[in-house]
Specification:
alpha/beta; 7 helices; elongated
C-alpha cells in the first residue's frame, strides 16, 4: 500500500504535478550547466598557470594585502634544493598617465622573466628591459595605448609620507602577532 496516496494525488492534480516536474528539470539543468562552466573555467586557469609559470611553489602572504617579508624570501632562497626565487611587489600608487584602462604595476627581478615566467610572443627582451630599469608592458596594454618598443611612457606615483618609527613599530607588532605565516599554493618554483 506504500505510495497509494501519492499515486492518487498525481492522478487528481496532473497540472500541478507537471509544473513541479518541469521546475525540477529546469533547476537540475541550470545547476548542471553552472557546474560544467565552473569546472571548465577552473581547468582553463589551471592550464594557463601550469603552461606559463615554471615554478613548483608560490608563496603568498597570509595577509593578502601585504607582501611576503624580505626575510622569508631570503630564507626560501637559501633553502637546500631551491633553484630560483624572486619577489614580485605590487606598486599600487604607480599609474600610467595616458593609459586607457586600469592596470597593476609590479616590480620584478629579471630572474622571474628568465626562469619562472618566461615571456612568449614578445617583441624585444623584457628581461633585459627590466634589468636596465625600463618597463615591460603586456601586449594588451601596449596595443590599447599605442605603445611600441622605445615608446616614452609617462608614469606617476603618489608621494606618500611615511612615519618611519610608526611603520617599524607596526611591522614588529604584526610580525609578532602573526609570525611569518605563509600560505603555500602548489603551482611551481618559489615566487614570493
Amino acid at each position: 500500500m506504500t505510495g497509494t496516496l501519492a499515486t492518487r494525488n498525481i492522478g487528481r492534480t496532473k497540472r500541478r504535478t507537471a509544473n513541479t516536474a518541469a521546475a525540477l528539470f529546469v533547476g537540475v539543468a541550470i545547476v548542471s550547466c553552472l557546474s560544467v562552466l565552473a569546472s571548465s573555467m577552473l581547468a582553463s586557469v589551471s592550464d594557463m598557470i601550469d603552461d606559463n609559470l615554471h615554478a613548483d611553489y608560490v608563496l603568498v602572504s597570509a595577509a593578502l594585502s601585504q607582501s611576503v617579508s624580505p626575510k622569508a624570501v631570503n630564507d626560501v632562497k637559501h633553502t637546500a634544493g631551491v633553484g630560483a626565487t624572486t619577489a614580485v611587489r605590487t606598486l599600487p600608487t604607480v599609474k600610467l598617465m595616458q593609459a586607457n584602462e586600469q592596470f597593476t604595476a609590479m616590480a620584478v627581478d629579471r630572474e622571474l622573466l628568465d626562469a619562472m615566467y618566461p615571456a612568449t610572443h614578445q617583441e624585444g627582451d623584457a628581461a633585459q628591459a627590466i634589468e636596465h630599469g625600463e618597463i615591460a608592458v603586456g601586449r594588451k596594454v601596449a596595443d590599447s595605448n599605442g605603445y611600441a618598443i622605445g615608446s616614452t611612457v609617462e608614469m606617476e606615483s603618489k608621494n606618500i609620507g611615511i612615519d618611519e618609527a610608526a611603520t617599524k613599530q607596526a611591522i614588529a607588532a604584526y610580525e609578532q602577532q602573526v609570525g611569518e605565516q605563509v600560505s603555500v599554493h602548489r603551482t611551481g618554483r618559489y615566487v614570493a
